[in-house]
Model the fold of this input.
Amino acid sequence: MAIAVGFLLGAGNPSPANEALIKNLAIPAELILKALRALAPPLILVAVLHTFMTANIPGTAGRRLAVLLLTNTTVAIFIGLLVANLLRPGTWGRLSAPGGTGTGLPQEKFDPWGLIQDAIPKAILEPLVNNNVIQLIVIALSFGIVLRAIKSEMVTQGKNEYKPIENVISILFEAVIRILNWVISLVPLAVFGIVASTVAKEGFEPFISLGAFILAVLVALVLQACYYLSRVKFGSWVKPVNFLRGGSDAFVMAFSTSSSGATMPVTFEVLQTKIGLRESSAALGALVGANFNNDGTALYEAMSALFISQVLGQHLNIGQQLLVVLTSIFASVGAANIPNAGLVTMTLVFTSVGLPTQYIAVLVTVDWFLDRCRTAINVMGDMTVSALLDGKKDRG
Ligand code: ASP
Done:
């Protein structure tokens, strides 16, 4: 339908009369992007605070879980960056920003020392206003760690004064997610407008580039799946074939719903009944992991940043790519386990390296498919962590 409208408006060569109409078609996407940019900082802040306040993880298993989650996410991001650097999907075709603005990357030099100096905000609310992701991480981690420590002290003293603040954080988290759901329900409208205006303005050429991007993301996700299977083979008693067969219900559910949250009960169930893990390992990986372990999302966000920088012909240097790694880790923690959530926190990854966020509107057009694929990998990541926590000895 969108392609037909774009075609009617003059694929690649619109008449001047149609140009105003084409510009208006891009408006829904611009508004949705604005909303996503505005929601990203509070979402990351409350998601990190919520994780610190509510995650109920026993001592040593907790530390193991944290190490496993961090290594898997970092590997995912490196795989994503490696594939994007090798295949260079952004150079396969021409792609311009919707609305025609912001086609150039600000020529800022990467300055790690400047970044460190800038990491402390002048005011606590500053990172929320300026979308400064490094400052946001500093604030979220500081408050998260302190609130967690206060809660632990109170729990050992038998006090429960921490409860109201824990409830406030949970309610705020829920509220941000609900608003996010409103915005996300409008995404099909944005996709329609963007596809129609892109076809009208530039014909079908931009889709070659997007096709290359889809291919590159799929290659990277498959590599990540192979990494999981090798971890399962060497780090647990579970046979990779049984892992894949037993987990198939969860993978299919993740693919069909695009939501690792909605898939969580199935993940938990198959880990115990079909794969045969202990309940405690299944719970840690599936329940805790589903909330803030999103390797597929991290991989995708890092690849998107690199893809757009390639489209702009301004390749990110090593320092900038490391910044992408760092921000993608946090962006994936903040990405709620619902459809399209990765698009929200992606705005912060883009801003951290000075990429124009208008291009995210172009990625929205392929997100309905790539979201399904990365959600399946998110779920597979949680299941891998469960298998590794279960260790090398089966239940017997
Ligand atoms: N849909 C993903 C999930 O539920 C999150 C994302 O958009 O990346 O895991």
User: Anything to note?
Assistant: The chain has 17 helices and no strands. The pocket of aspartic acid is lined by residues 258-261, 294, 297, 335, 337-342, 371, 374-375, 378 (CB under 6 Å). The chain has one domain: 57-160+205-390. Residues 61 and 389 are 8 Å apart (CA to CA).
